[in-house]
Amino acid sequence: MKFRLSIFCFCLPVIAFAEIPVSSDGLIRISVDLDKDGDKDLLVSTDTKLFGTSGGNWDVYLYTDKYEKIGSIFAHPKAISFEQDIWDLDRASENDSSTGFVRIWVYLKSNGRSGTLGYYVVRKNSVDDIRSISVYVGDPADTEDFGSNIYSSIFSSSPMPYEYTKEPLEK
Asked: Does the model's pTM come out above 0.90?
C-alpha cells in the first residue's frame, strides 16, 4: 500500500489553503460532497484556538434528509484536500448502489522537517482510520526534495471543489 501511495501522489491532480484563517477563536466548516450524491456534506472543526501545528479534530457529517455524524478526523485546514477514491470504486460490488467514496488527504506536521501524510476514506456510514506514511518535507538531506514534491502535488489544489466558512463560537 505504501508503494502505491507514493506513485499516486505524483500523478494526483492537485486550491492553495493559505487563505483559510485559523489564528482566531471559532469553528471552521468545510462544505464538500463526500458521498458523491450531489448534496453538500460537512466537516466541522473544534475551536481553532485549540489547534496545534498539526491541526485539530473535525466531525464529519453526511447529508441525506438531515446531517448525520459518521465519524471524525484530525487535520489542519491549510493541509487538507479531497478526491474521489477511484480504487474503492473499482472494488465496489455490483449490488452497491453508491456512486463512490471520497478520500480526505491530510498532512500532520510533526516538526519543521517531518510529518505524516495520509488519507481517510469516507464510507456510507463511517470514516475509516487514517492510512499514512511519514514524509520529510524540510529535510536538508533530501536532495531530490521528495517530501516537498509529494506535499505540493496533493495540497497545491484539491481535485474536488469545496467551500469553507469561519464562524465565531456561540456564547
From this structure: no
